[in-house]
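We were asked to recover a plausible sequence for a given structure. The inputs and outputs are reproduced exactly as logged, with field labels preserved.

PROBLEM: sequence recovery
POSITIONS: 367
GIVEN STRUCTURE:
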């Protein structure tokens, strides 16, 4: 791997393939695979990731919002795309780009049917979302009859799938809760399917659901974080390979005398002679201020260099007193040897947040 010369996010497509194949090995052969590529494919690059997975014959994609799906269509993606959380204002564009909406409330169901009918659609594929305990989006069990009667009169839409989402699939202490969610979904799906007269696909599990609840794979699984290399447990992480590595370089080295301060608001005051390195990466690149003041650290020559003082918009300063290093040397913020999960933990957050936070200013390179 050539050394980097600026801040970059390296994206390893071989690692993506490895993760995809590992997750597929957990599925029955007929179970379909939906790749979640929302939020720029978890902060990497949605178009490149989706094209690569399309070549690997993934069955479906999901994004959160219609705009994300439109960008994928413009990038040449022809695989079906489920839009998990569309708003009515985007429904016409959604149909124009052949994206498939999740319909999660009576308001959104009616609005979609109205627009699909006005656009003369026949059997447009839609996905009905049920709430089984997350209490975020979706119809409740009691809504089944009304949803069915709303759908039955219409030929403009066809129910491609019924789905729900687990609230605590990574937390085995919540196993009873999760099993209740699975059972609730089964009973909703039975009632719904019997009355509908045809059988839509059923899906419920995210990455940790795939790993922990094989009985809930149903017809399709939905994976995001696993594809990008995180398995939601220390044990499972060993089976995955992080796709994204955030790297930067040392711009300048400073020798700080006792009593001097470093950075804005003089948040760090030195009690001894130290050496700091200034790096071209800051909160506008995704390293939030919560990582400052000694919490987060980066790796230089494989040694930990903690962040000194406040994170600036375009820079951080790190303590390299005990590290032999020079201006221009490579710095690893996170990557395959130092996981984004460990970095996130220093600021009390999770891999999902740090990987999706890396801003579009950071150059993406593919290996
Ligand atoms: C984001 C999302 C997923 C993917 O979850 P991971 O834990 O990243 O695998 C699956 N389903 C829904 C509804 C989501 O919003």
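RECOVERED SEQUENCE:
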């Amino acid at each position: 791997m050539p050394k980097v010369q600026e801040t970059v996010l390296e994206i390893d497509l071989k690692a993506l393939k490895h993760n995809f194949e590992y997750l597929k090995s957990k599925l029955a052969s007929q179970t379909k695979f939906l790749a979640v590529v929302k939020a720029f494919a978890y902060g990497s690059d949605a178009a490149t990731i989706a094209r690569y997975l399309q070549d690997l014959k993934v069955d479906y994609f999901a994004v959160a919002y219609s705009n994300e799906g439109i960008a994928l269509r413009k990038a040449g993606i022809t695989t079906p795309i489920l839009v998990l959380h569309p708003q009515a204002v985007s429904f016409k564009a959604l149909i124009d780009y052949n994206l498939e909406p999740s319909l999660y409330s009576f308001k959104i169901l009616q609005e979609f049917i109205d627009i699909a009918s006005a656009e003369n659609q026949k059997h447009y594929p839609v996905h009905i979302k049920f709430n089984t305990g997350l209490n975020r989006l979706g119809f409740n069990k009691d809504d089944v009859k009304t949803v069915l009667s709303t759908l039955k009169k219409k030929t403009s839409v066809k129910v491609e799938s019924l789905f729900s989402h687990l609230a605590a699939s990574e937390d085995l202490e919540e196993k009873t809760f999760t099993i209740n969610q699975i059972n609730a979904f089964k009973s909703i799906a039975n009632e719904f399917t019997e009355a509908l007269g045809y059988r839509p696909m059923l899906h419920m599990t995210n990455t940790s659901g795939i790993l922990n609840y094989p009985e809930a794979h149903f017809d399709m699984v939905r994976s995001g974080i696993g594809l990008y290399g995180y398995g939601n447990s220390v044990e499972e992480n060993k089976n995955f390979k992080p796709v994204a590595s955030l790297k930067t370089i040392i711009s300048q080295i400073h020798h700080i005398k006792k009593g001097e301060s470093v950075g804005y608001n003089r948040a760090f005051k030195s009690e001894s002679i130290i050496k700091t390195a200034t790096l071209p990466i800051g909160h506008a690149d995704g390293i939030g201020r919560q990582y400052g003041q000694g919490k987060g650290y980066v790796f230089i020559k494989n040694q930990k260099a903690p962040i000194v003082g406040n994170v600036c918009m375009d820079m951080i300063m790190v303590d390299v007193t005990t590290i032999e290093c020079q201006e221009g040397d490579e710095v690893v913020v996170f990557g395959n040897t130092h996981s984004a999960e460990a970095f996130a933990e220093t600021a009390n957050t999770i891999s999902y947040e740090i990987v999706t936070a890396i801003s579009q200013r950071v150059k993406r390179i593919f290996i």
